[in-house]
Amino acid sequence: PYCYGGYEEQVHISEIDAVVESGNEEMFCLPEPTISEVDQRIAEIVVSQIEDGACLQLGIGAMPNAIGKLIANSSLRNLGVHTEMLCDSFVDIFEAGCISNRNKTHDVGKFVYTFALGSKKLYDFLHHNPSCSSYPVDYTNRLDKIAANERAIAINNALEIDLFGQVSSESSGTRHISGTGGQLDYTYGCYHSRGGKALICLSSSVVDKDGSRRSRIRPFLEPGTITTLPRVMVNYVVTEYGMVNLKGKSTWERAKALVSIAHPDFREELTEQAKRMNIQM
Predict the structure, then answer these.
(1) What are the two backbone dihedrals, phi and then psi, of residue 87, each rounded to the nearest 5 degrees?
(2) pLDDT higher than 70, residue 281
(3) Residue 178 — very low, low, confident or very high, per pLDDT cuts 50/70/90?
């Protein structure tokens, strides 16, 4: 697609040494992920936290797609978009009449993003669309730019969280799964946005290849696990069993809150682990 910029997208002819003409390969289209019942339940909780006029950032995966479908069928209006990644969900939300970008503090009327990844429908939406502006990541992910929009909402996935509130979205132990991305930037930015919320979403448990189930809420992160978000930055955490707000809570209060949204099979064990780790009131 031919995508418009709007910030540092031009290069002066004096800076060009050579021009090489080339054809373009067909764009990679991301297969549509399957939305599970857990994704759907988490999405329902998340959408209940979004207000008219909110400015959205969505991550990647099935859960953001579920959120997009729910918003598209909701009564939400005048939503804005300021995101690192533009995904198919935003097209669905726009076509349903829920996005206007008119209530944003800056880049009013614009979908602001750094890169797009999704289906041909998304790429066709971007093609010669003046309402979409691709900006450098040092613009989209700047704290002051994110925080300037009121009611900024960041919705991102995590792999694990421990009872202290530390979040890993990159690895499980030394097994690397994903990159850092903009999760830290948007969590911090939304924390400073007036009326903003940063929501970290994860299923309460996962079934391993051997068929055993383990909790994604852990007593502590396994050695070697990369900490994506320090506990002092973590605001809202959502599983299919509910949502908790860790802001301003003591270590014991954080642990107690996280246990309340853990899979029921692991709550007693997690409580005992917290006591053994000397997490007390």
Answers:
(1) -120, 175
(2) no
(3) confident
What is the distance between the alpha carbons of residues 101 and 29, in angstroms, rounded to a whole number?
Answer: 26
- Which of 56-65, 69-78, 123-132, 261-270 is predicted with the least confidence, judged by mean pLDDT? 56-65
**Is 3.30.470.20 the CATH classification of the domain at 143-281?**
no
What's the rounded mean pLDDT across residues 193-207? 94
Q: What is the pLDDT of residues 54-79, one digit of tens each?
A: 999 998 878 888 998 999 999 999 99
Q: What are the distances in angstroms from CA 90 to CA 37, 81, 156, 178, 184?
A: 21, 8, 15, 23, 21
Tokens of 39: 């994704």
List helix spans (H) across the chain: 37-47, 62-72, 88-95, 120-126, 137-140, 143-148, 183-192, 251-260, 267-276
Which phi and psi (to 5°) does residue 143 adopt? -55, -50
Q: Which CATH class is domain 1-7+59-140?
A: alpha beta
Question: Active-site residue among 25, 44, 51, 84?
Answer: 84
Domain ranges of the chain: 1-7+59-140, 143-281
Over residues 35-56, the pLDDT tens digits come to 899 999 999 999 999 999 999 9
21 carries an active-site annotation: no
The reply to whether domains 1-7+59-140 and 143-281 share a CATH topology is: no
Q: Which residues make Cβ contacts (< 8 Å) with residue 66, sequence separation at least 6? A: 35, 39, 40, 42, 43
3-state helix, strand, coil in the chain (%, to 5): 30, 20, 50
52: helix, coil or strand?
A: coil
Which of 151, 145, 193, 148 lies closest to 54 in space, CA to CA?
A: 151
**CA end-to-end span of the chain, whole Å?**
56
